[in-house]
């Protein structure tokens, strides 16, 4: 370890949990991240959209974040970017509408919808 | 996976950020709508996650490295055409596994992989990308000062060794064959594979026996 640099590894530890030095397989901090990840792949597998469309959406979403934040901004969360990219894609493809998505989100938030997911 | 999801929602709320409730609900709303519209089945997402947990992971990449270390002819084929090479070992490329390119570390050159645009990563060989690979600080620094980044990962290279930084993209996803550690003559592929970390296969760690 080089002590002169404010060690990079320590930077990564802040707020986001330990740096996986010997990563196993999945790296989800919270369960919704796994669901968001799986959905984006599942719809590509089902040929609902080409995978490349999702990838482009992810690149532009992360690109917009990079432009408006400094790299060490603590609000960075990869799967929030992932989810935002996924939402943008499915809304722009007309697979669901923004209204029904907002309504259903609220139903889950207020627990007025009982559906096990 | 469904179970974990459920428990977390009910059991550990107070540990999580306020926004967790929103993101959890948002993700559920999306999945609920896709199920309703028949775009995905009730077990589709579980199946995808399960596949990534059990069939895709750094154990695949480690197998490729061990084979390349012990079989020079295989290594040549792998360097010439990585997708054909891994197919020989029964590994599928599939999503995010197209257009692989293998680069080899040597006495003269050390290769590091990054993706400055987003997080292109050879999933079939390494599973999902670890946190550091997606981190904006890493993405910004690795191209500019690879030696400093390496040093923060605990790797110090000789001054005269050159460093090549490869930027993965949809067109090419890079994978590194690290240098085989000394004193491993006669080791089985299985024993060698156990030495190889995810970081080593992207040039952020060395392999030691």
Automatic annotation (TrEMBL), chain A:
Coiled coil: none annotated. SUPFAM superfamilies: Electron transport accessory proteins. It holds the Pfam family NHase_beta_N. InterPro entries: CN_hydtase_beta-like_N, CN_hydtase_beta_C, Elect_transpt_acc-like_dom_sf, Nitrile_Hydratase_acc_put. Residues 14-111 form the Nitrile hydratase beta subunit-like N-terminal domain. NCBIfam families: nitrile_acc. This is Nitrile hydratase accessory protein. The lineage of its organism: Bacteria, Pseudomonadati, Pseudomonadota, Alphaproteobacteria, Hyphomicrobiales.
UniProtKB/TrEMBL annotation, chain B:
Coiled coil: none annotated. Residues 22-204 form the Nitrile hydratase alpha/Thiocyanate hydrolase gamma domain. It comes from the Bacteria. The keyword Metal-binding applies. InterPro entries: CN_Hdrase_a/SCN_Hdrase_g_sf, CN_Hdrtase_a/SCN_Hdrlase_g, CN_Hdrtase_asu/SCN_Hdrlase_gsu, Nitrile_hydratase_asu. NCBIfam families: nitrile_alph (TIGR01323). This is nitrile hydratase. It comes from Kaistia dalseonensis. The lineage of its organism: Bacteria, Pseudomonadati, Pseudomonadota, Alphaproteobacteria, Hyphomicrobiales.
């Amino acid at each position: 370890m080089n002590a002169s640099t404010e060690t990079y590894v320590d930077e990564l530890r802040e707020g986001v949990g330990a740096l996986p030095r010997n990563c196993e397989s999945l790296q989800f901090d919270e369960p919704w991240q796994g669901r968001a990840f799986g959905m984006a792949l599942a719809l590509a597998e089902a040929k609902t959209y080409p995978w490349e469309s999702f990838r482009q959406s992810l690149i532009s979403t992360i690109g917009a974040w990079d432009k408006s934040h400094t790299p060490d901004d603590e609000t960075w969360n990869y799967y929030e970017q992932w989810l935002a990219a996924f939402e943008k894609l499915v809304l722009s493809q007309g697979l669901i509408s923004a209204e029904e998505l907002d309504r259903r989100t609220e139903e889950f938030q207020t627990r007025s919808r009982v559906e096990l997911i | 996976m469904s179970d974990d999801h459920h428990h977390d929602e009910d059991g550990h709320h107070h540990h999580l950020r306020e926004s967790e409730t929103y993101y959890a609900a948002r993700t559920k709303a999306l999945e609920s709508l896709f199920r309703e519209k028949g775009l995905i089945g009730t077990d589709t997402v579980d199946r995808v996650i399960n596949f990534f947990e059990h069939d895709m992971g750094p154990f695949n990449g480690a197998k490729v490295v061990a084979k390349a270390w012990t079989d020079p002819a295989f290594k040549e084929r792998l360097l010439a055409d990585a997708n054909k090479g891994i197919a020989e070992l029964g590994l599928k490329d599939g999503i995010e596994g197209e257009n692989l390119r293998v680069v080899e570390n040597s006495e003269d050159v050390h290769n590091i992989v990054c993706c400055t645009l987003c997080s292109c990563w050879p999933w079939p060989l390494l599973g999902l990308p670890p946190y550091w690979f997606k981190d904006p600080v890493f993405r910004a620094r690795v191209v500019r000062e690879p030696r400093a980044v390496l040093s923060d990962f605990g790797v110090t290279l000789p001054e005269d060794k050159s460093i090549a930084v490869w930027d993965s993209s949809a067109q090419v996803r890079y994978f590194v064959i690290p240098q085989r550690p000394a004193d491993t003559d006669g080791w089985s592929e299985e024993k060698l594979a156990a030495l190889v970390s995810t970081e080593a296969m992207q040039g952020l760690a060395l392999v030691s026996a």
